[in-house]
Specification:
heterodimer, A: MetI-like fold, 2 domains, about 70% helix, about 0% strand, B: mainly alpha, MetI-like fold
């Protein structure tokens, strides 16, 4: 509150708004818009550039000064990508692993969040903090023994190895537990009096109430799982089980000078996530608010 | 994210549920047991055990393929800290983390304050700023690799317009690290800005209105009221971002592989290459321990800062 009194004690600055236009200018925050739009341009430009280049023929890419939009439009780069990379297979692989991982993480997080948030049992706080603590452990810290475990269990180079270490997520559990506090206990008690079984109660009453936090976590985890890089890089060795980001990295390394083609590849990798993101945009933004505050 | 540790404690104290009614608690106990026990086992086996194993490995000369190993005591730690390359790696990582975070946080704060008073078109603008965060690092690296390309790259073409000689960017000892940092700031600023925007929206309007009535200008309100009230969020974003940056891997792996001459080599890349390319997992584990120590210290700093911070 000290700051507030500091402001009030200072002589009330009569902001001189002389003239009509500067006044309007200030009221509509045109300067804010101007700067933000320039910034948005800088944010968007690399993506537009990637998109535009992916449709340029080879000769045009090297032209100086570069053209903003393709002068001659071609699908050739995409044809080349499909020729060299089994994009359909990569989509299927990555999509499958992403969907399985995301569903397992979200369902288990909802369940654990509910139990940690609404139940009381021995050692509850200790267990919850022990789970939460894993959030701060960098993946690089336990990746080596994790890899050895996968090899030991003879599931190296399988989807199980990709999914197993990422079935539970402490962060998602935390988000769900926070959300459970907003569900009134009376509701749960009423359902119990109506002799609803505990699992029935969770699936039919609690889970349907979790809409917002479900959407937030699904969109987050879909993005993270789709873009996951280090673990697939280490675990998956056969090309038929390759994940899209790793395959694309190898592809870029091999054909880095064929700019049109690598841009087409990058575009193909980005499209699914951008579509999901646009669809669930509102929830992603809510989710970020949850990250920092509350 | 680690600040959530301290915040979770708060809600435990306030939001403790009570079961009323006289019906049996047995089904609940059974459900809690079926849910929590597998989770405990999961975290013991797939998190706590491997972390302990890393600590164990760091005292051995184990390799990835051979099953035999010997205890070597602190040998690995002595080795890495006597290697000039590792000290360089430590410095690179610290430099990258602090500069990237300082630039990202500062820029994000500016963007958030520009966003704060406006209402129309916020959704679309916010979406655009957030776009790099959701995109896979490899797609971003692909684009920026081309921007930085020495001969045909966009940046050198722009420089050529002004008659400036080209810069080798990622191949240059002086420019490789700044180039990576620049790209990371571009990629990370939207995420931090969104947290700040949410923080600004959370400031009680009564405070702002009171200041307005007292004749404070919009700038004074931003500087003397909103910024101090945001300090908690700023601390949070700053420290989490440093923690995240200390673990940087993908950008470096994809753009420079630590080159030229180790000028962009970072801890995570060193762990990966030592373990999975040179197969020296004992030594890699000791580096992992150093990384964990750094992240742990930063997390403690964060928890302290958040606790001592004043609240409204």
């Amino acid at each position: 509150m000290a700051q507030v009194t500091a402001v009030t004690s200072s002589p009330a600055s009569s902001t001189v708004r002389s003239g009509y236009w500067p006044h309007i200018f200030q009221r509509m925050h045109l300067l804010n818009y101007l700067i933000l739009i320039v910034g948005a341009g800088a944010m968007l430009f690399p993506f537009l550039w990637m998109f535009s280049t992916s449709f340029k023929p080879r000769a045009e890419i090297m032209v100086f000064p570069p053209t903003l939009l393709p002068a001659t439009f071609t699908w050739q780069n995409y044809a080349n990508v499909f020729d060299k990379l089994d994009i359909t297979q990569l989509y299927i692989n990555t999509g499958y692993v992403t969907i399985v991982k995301t569903s397992l993480m979200i369902y288990s997080a909802a369940l654990l969040g509910y139990v940690f948030g609404k139940f009381r049992f021995w050692g509850q706080d200790f267990i919850f903090y022990a789970v939460l603590f894993t959030m701060i452990i960098p993946f690089e810290v336990y990746v080596i023994p994790l890899y050895q475990m996968m090899v030991f269990a003879k599931i190296g180079d399988t989807y199980s190895a990709l999914i197993l270490p990422h079935m539970l997520s402490a962060y998602a559990i935390f988000l769900f537990r926070q959300f459970m506090f907003t569900i009134p206990n009376e509701l749960i008690d009423a359902a119990r009096i109506d002799s609803a079984g505990e699992w029935y109660l969770f699936h039919r009453i609690i889970l349907p109430l979790c809409g917002p936090v479900l959407a937030t976590t699904v969109s987050f985890y879909f993005m993270w799982n789709w873009n996951d890089f280090l673990w697939p890089l280490i675990v998956i060795t056969s090309s038929k089980r390759a994940m899209l980001p790793v395959a694309l990295a190898t592809f870029v390394e091999q054909h880095g000078t064929d700019f049109g083609m690598v841009m087409a590849g990058a575009t193909l990798a980005v499209i699914p996530v951008i579509l999901i993101f646009i669809g669930l945009q509102r929830y992603v933004v809510q989710g970020i608010a949850l990250t920092g505050l509350k | 994210m680690s600040s959530t540790l301290s915040q979770a404690g708060k809600s435990i104290r306030t939001g403790r549920p009570h079961f009323t009614g006289s019906h049996s608690h047995l089904p609940q106990r059974r459900m809690a047991l079926t849910v929590v026990v597998p989770a405990i086992l999961y975290y013991l086996i797939l998190r706590y055990y491997p972390v302990g194993q890393t600590l164990f490995l760091s005292f051995t000369n184990a390799t990835l393929l051979a099953p035999d190993y010997q205890f070597v005591g602190l040998h690995n730690f002595v080795t890495i800290f006597s290697e000039p390359v590792f000290l360089k790696v430590l410095w690179n990582t610290t430099y990258y983390a602090f500069i990237t975070t300082a630039l990202t946080t500062g820029l994000a704060l500016g963007i958030a304050f520009l966003f704060d008073p406006i209402r129309r078109g916020v959704g679309l603008l916010r979406l655009i700023y957030y776009l790099p965060t959701i995109t896979s690092a490899i797609a971003i690296a692909t684009i920026w690799l081309w921007f930085y390309q020495p001969r045909f790259g966009l940046f050198n073409q722009i420089l050529a317009l002004f008659g400036t000689p080209p810069i080798a960017w990622l191949n240059s000892l002086a420019w490789a690290m700044p180039s990576l940092i620049f790209m990371s700031v571009w990629g990370g600023v939207g995420f931090s800005a969104l947290i700040f925007i949410a923080g600004l929206q959370g400031i009680p309007s009564s405070l702002v209105e009171a200041a307005l009535i007292d004749g404070a200008s919009e700038r004074q309100i931003a500087w003397h009221i909103k910024l101090p009230l945001l300090s908690r969020v700023i601390t949070f974003v700053f420290v989490t971002s440093i923690i995240g940056s200390f673990q940087v891997f993908q950008q470096v792996y994809l753009m420079t592989r630590g080159g030229p001459l180790n000028s962009t080599r970072v801890l995570a890349l060193e762990i990966y290459e030592d373990a999975f390319q040179h197969l020296k997992i004992g030594q890699a584990a000791s580096i992992a321990c150093v990384l964990f120590l750094i992240v742990g210290v930063l997390t403690i700093v964060q928890l302290r800062l958040q606790r001592s911070d004043w609240e409204l």
